[in-house]
């Protein structure tokens, strides 16, 4: 089942067109990686999907919703530079996030405990966030993003700033998350995309220049090489 269908999405900053017509569809419990260099337009695309920014043109259709509906409750979003309150413990931070998302005190505590286990920081739940490693902070950020059980979780460069150990833990967590929700995440590293994603979209200068499964992309690349040899 489709979770979101994006049609001819465009964004201008003043007169400068930075997203030039993007189309894709993301299915339930699948992962799409948006791959591109700095400035390709990844953050702008993800911010439009998260509801933080209005597209200049095009449609973002969530399954079961109509154009113009408020779809933010269907989405969990982890920005590229998330803000944490370093003086809070991980548990306090998630309980607070739960209450902000509308859960009762009791439900927020219950959901917090579930998430601490899911993201693997149960043992550190009473430690201040300021003492967490980069990987632990990202996993806490993912827990916060899914506290309201969204249908789609959007992660903006969740592993780019991490050391190899932190990167591994976050990628493994994304693999587990995929069993429950669709994931859209951005990266500039092909190996990260390949590891957890079913489909890769290559964004260059605001356009999707290539898309498909890793196998399809390899086949295309192979075919292009053969075509060149016979020219
Ligand atoms: P990075 O990996 O560096 O975050 P990105 O792929 O996420 O890059 P965006 O941040 O979406 O790319 O930027 C796309 C283009 O839009 C870039 O040319 C950038 O300079 C420009 N841009 C981004 N935000 C603004 C803004 N608020 N006003 C004007 N131009 C902007």
From TrEMBL:
Keywords: ATP-binding, Nucleotide-binding, Transport. Coiled coil: none annotated. GO terms for molecular function: ATP binding; ATP hydrolysis activity. It comes from the Bacteria. Residues 4-230 form the ABC transporter domain. Belongs to the ABC transporter superfamily. This is ABC transporter ATP-binding protein. It comes from Cytobacillus solani.
């Amino acid at each position: 089942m489709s979770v979101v269908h994006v049609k001819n999405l465009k964004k201008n900053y003043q007169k400068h067109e930075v997203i030039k017509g993007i189309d894709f569809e993301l299915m339930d419990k699948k992962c799409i990686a948006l791959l591109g260099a700095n400035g390709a337009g990844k953050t702008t695309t993800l911010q439009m999907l998260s509801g933080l920014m209005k597209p200049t043109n095009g449609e973002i259709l969530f399954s079961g919703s109509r154009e113009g509906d408020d779809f933010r409750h269907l989405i969990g979003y982890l920005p590229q530079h998330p803000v944490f309150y370093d003086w809070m413990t991980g548990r306090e931070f998630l309980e607070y996030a739960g209450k902000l998302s509308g859960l009762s005190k009791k439900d927020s505590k219950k959901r917090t405990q579930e998430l601490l286990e899911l993201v693997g920081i149960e043992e550190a739940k009473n430690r201040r966030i300021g003492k967490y490693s980069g990987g632990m902070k990202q996993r806490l950020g993912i827990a916060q993003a899914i506290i309201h059980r969204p249908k789609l979780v959007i992660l903006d460069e969740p592993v780019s700033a991490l050391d190899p150990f932190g990167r591994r833990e976050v990628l493994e967590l994304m693999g587990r998350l995929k069993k429950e929700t669709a994931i859209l995440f951005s990266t500039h590293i092909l190996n990260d995309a390949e590891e957890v994603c079913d489909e890769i979209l290559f964004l260059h200068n605001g356009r999707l220049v290539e898309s498909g499964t890793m196998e399809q992309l390899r086949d295309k690349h192979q075919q292009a090489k053969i075509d060149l040899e016979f020219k």
